[in-house]
Amino acid sequence: MRGAHGVRGELKIEPLTDAPGRFTPGATVHAAGAPRTMRSARLHGGILLLQLEGIDTRERAEELRGALLEVPEVELPQLERGSYYRHEIVGLQVFDRQGQPLGRVVQVLETGANDVYVTRSDEGELLIPAIDSVVKDVDVAAGRMTVELLPGLERVSPKLPGSKKRPPA
């Protein structure tokens, strides 16, 4: 939530969904952990303005600044086979085709062409492009992803506390 709009408690929202049509009166979102029913939703200058039940003053709306509005998982639309929600990908253990562990997905980055899975382990960070030639299998129920790393994909070593580069001699 980006802030309040006006004096009647409308919220300025930056939608992070691929289904913006889900913002309809009567639908439920969770705002700061509490379920709220949407009273209205409208676009205004490229920003979504949302009115929620129980939020009827600017001050109440401002209390939600920075909060993430979430949809109950049971209300999420079913995705087509091979597509996943970000929350299903984050946390998966990643293995190469030989079964060697590569780390855990900690973040999904959006790029212009495709998403990138940020994977971390004790050995460092690995950026895995979310493309069919790399991601071979995703098993959400088992909590794992199998990948085939392309030549040139390598870990970025973690910086050790207190380590400094030595100047050239």
Helices and strands, with pairings:
Elements: E1 3-5, E2 10-13, E3 28-31, E4 34-44, E5 47-52, H1 58-62, E6 69-70, H2 86-89, E7 93-96, E8 101-109, E9 116-121, E10 124-129, E11 135-139, E12 144-147
Parallel strand pairs: 7-12
Antiparallel strand pairs: 1-2, 2-5, 3-4, 3-6, 4-5, 7-8, 8-9, 9-10, 11-12
What does this entry look like structurally?
The structure is a single chain. The chain is mostly beta strands and 169 residues long. It folds into two domains: 3-74, Beta Barrel (Elongation Factor Tu (Ef-tu), domain 3); 86-147, PRC-barrel domain (SH3 type barrels, Roll). Helix content is 5%, strand content 38%. It has helices spanning 58-62, 86-89; strands spanning 3-5, 10-13, 28-31, 34-44, 47-52, 69-70, 93-96, 101-109, 116-121, 124-129, 135-139, 144-147. The chain is elongated and about 60 Å long.
Question: Quick check: average pLDDT?
Answer: 86
Number of domains: 2
Strand tally, please?
12
Q: What is the string of SSEs from the N terminus onward?
A: EEEEEHEHEEEEEE
Class from helix and strand fractions: mainly beta
CATH architecture annotation of the largest domain: Beta Barrel
Work out the radius of gyration: 21 Å
Please estimate the helix content.
under 10%
Shape: elongated
Report how far the terminal alpha carbons are from each other. Answer: 52 Å
In DSSP terms, counting alpha (H) and pi (I) runs of 4 or more, how many helices? 2
Which ranges are low-confidence, i.e. pLDDT below 50, for 5 or more consecutive residues?
none
From the 3D structure, determine the CATH topology of the largest domain: Elongation Factor Tu (Ef-tu), domain 3
Any idea what the CATH superfamily of the largest domain is called? RimM
Main sheet makeup: 6 strands, antiparallel
Question: For this structure, what is the CATH class of the largest domain?
Answer: Mainly Beta
Q: Can you list the strand order of the major beta sheet?
A: 1-2-5-4-3-6
DSSP strand content: 35-45%
